[in-house]
Give the backbone structure.
Amino acid sequence: MCVQHQLQLLLFLAVLSLTKSYSVVVIGGGWAGYSASSTLASSSGADVEVTILEASPRNSGGGLAGGWRTASGRPVEAGIHGFWREYQNTFRVMRDEIGLDLDDVLSDFTPSVLFSKNGRVATAPVLATSARKGRKSSKSSNPILSSIYGSLPPPLDTALLADFDEKRLNLQDRISAVGLLSGWADFGQEDPDSWGRYDKISAAEFFLDYGGVTPNLYAELVSPMLHVLPMGPGSDISAAAALSCFHVFALQTRGAFDVRWAKGSLSDLIFDPWRVKLEEKGVRVEGGKRVNGIERAEDGDGMVVTAEDGSEYTADAVILAVGGTSAAKLKEGSKALKEAEGAKRVEDLRGVTCVATRIWLEPAPSPTTGLGGGAYSSTTLPKAVARAMGESPIAVVGAGVLLPELEETGFCIYDLQRMHAEQHMAEDTACLEVDMYRADGIADMSDDEIVELALRAVSSALKIDPLQVNVVDRAIVRARNAVSHFNIGSAAASPGIKWGRNVYACGDYIDRQGHASWSTEKAVVTGKQAAERVAKDLGLKGVKARVIPAAPDTPQLSNLRRLAKSIRRVSGAQRLPVPVPWTIGKWIRKGVRP
Ligand SMILES: Cc1cc2nc3c(=O)[nH]c(=O)nc-3n(C[C@H](O)[C@H](O)[C@H](O)COP(=O)(O)OP(=O)(O)OC[C@H]3O[C@@H](n4cnc5c(N)ncnc54)[C@H](O)[C@@H]3O)c2cc1C
C-alpha cells in the first residue's frame, strides 16, 4: 500500500472513531423517560441513537400522566395533573423543548378548596402574580391581611391569607402550627443526616409528638393534605417525606402552593407534540414494548434489552424510567440489575394505588354561572354540586368521608367543564372527575360500583343531598401500586441515578437529596440528570442537563435554620427531631430522650 493510501486509511479510521455512534435505550415513556431522551438527543455530536420502549400500546407517551380516548371519543387520563409554581424545569421543558406557549396549555393559577370528613376547612389563596394578566390574584376575606400581603414572608402568607373555616379550626389549633417551624427548619432538604433521622418516624408521630400540633389541626388540615400530596395516612408516610413534600408544594417560596392545571388531556397538549419533537431529533418511540429482560451483552460490553414480544435491543446504556415498583419487578428477573450495587434496595420500594373515575352526566337544565377559580365560570353539573364548589372547580378531600370504603382514601373532585376547553364546549354532557388515592380495595370493585361510590363520595364530602343523576358515560383507570409510596424507611431504599455500569434510572422515587422537588418536576429533573450522567460516561458531546436549581432558602428560613442548628447542638439531640417545648412533658412521661 502506498503512503498516500495508508494516510487515507488512517484518516478514515480516525474519522470513524470520532463519529462512533452510541445507542441508549430508555425504558418508560413518561415525564422521566421523555426528559432523559430529549436531553440526550441534544447531543451536539449527534453521536447517539435513543430508543424509548413504552409498555402501553395505546399510549406511547405520558406514563401515569398520559391518556387516551374512549370508544366514544371522550378523553381519559389516569388522574388530573397540576403544575405547582416551582415546577421551573417542567415549565422550561414545555416552553423550550416542546415549543409550547404555557398560557395555551395551562390554566392560570387556580385556588383549591380543602375539605376534611367534617366539611370545608379552608380555601388556599392564590398568591402568585397572574402569569397571563399580570395581576395579583390573591384573595382574603380580611382586608387588612390582603393589604399587607406583599410584606408577609412565606409560609406566613399562605397560612394567614388562607380562608379558614372557624368552625373547623380555632385560634389555638392555628397557633399550634408554629411548632412545625422547628422541624421545618431542622430538616435539611439536601442533608442525608436529616433524611436519615426523619425517615425513621411517621409523619403522624412527627406532627403530633414532636411538632406539637393539636389533634384537631392534624385531623382537619395536616391529614387531608397528606392523603392527597404524598397520598397516604400520616401513620404510613415518613416524616422526612412529609416535610420535604410540604416544603416543596407549599412552604418554600411565596405562592409555592399555587397550581396551574392543564386545559385538556396531557397527551393531547403536551406528550403528542413532544413525541413529534423527539422524533424530529431522531429519537425512536416504540409503544407496546413491555420490557422483561435487561442483561449484559455476552462480550460484557453494553446491554441487551428484551421486550415481551421477543424483540431485542442492544445498547451502550440503559435508562430505567419505569417507576419504582416496575423497576423492582424488572430486577426480579435480571441478573444485571441484581448485580447493580445502586439498585440493592429497589425491591423495598412500595406503590400507592389510585383510581381515577371520569363521569359524564346529563347536563342540568340550566347552567350555574358566576363560579370562581376555574378557566371557565359556568357549569351544567347539578346545581348543588356547582354551588358547593363555587369558589373553585377543585375540591381536595381527606380520608374517612364515607366508611368503610374511604377509611384510608383521600380524593380530589374536579369540575372538568370549568377546567378543560373540550369539556366546556361539550353541550350534551357535564363532566366530573373523582381521583381516589390509596384505593386498593376500590380498584377491585366493578366499574358500576366505583361510579356509585364516587358519586356518594362527592355528596358526602360536599355535604349535599345524595345525587340523582343520569350517567351518560364513564371511564375508570385503575393505577395499581403505580404511584411512589413514601412510607417510613422509603428514603433509605431510594436509589440514585446510576445503578451500575451501563445502567441508570430516573423518576419521582429517585433519591430525594440533590434537588428539592416532587412528582412531575422530580421526574423531569432526574430524567435530565440521568441523561447527563450517561453522556459523561459515554463521552457524548454537548449534552447538558441545565437543571434549574430548587429555590434557595428565604432569609426567614435561613435564620430559622441557624436557630435550629444551635438548639440541636445545645440539646445534644442526634437521632430524632428536636421536640417543641410544649411536648416535653409528653416525652418525660414516656421516659424518652430524643
Ligand atoms: C391520580 C394521579 C394524580 C397525580 N397528580 C399529580 C399532579 O397533580 N401533579 C404532579 O406533578 N404529579 C402528579 N401525579 C404524579 C405523576 O403522575 C408522577 O410523578 C409522574 O407521572 C412520574 O413520571 P415518571 O415518568 O417517573 O413515571 P410514570 O409516569 O409512571 O411513567 C413510567 C412509564 O413506564 C412504563 N413502564 C413501566 N414498566 C415498563 C416496562 N417493563 N417496559 C416498558 N415500559 C414500562 C409505564 O407504562 C409508564 O408509561 C399524579 C399521579 C396520579 C396517579
Observations:
- The two ends are 81 Å apart (CA to CA).
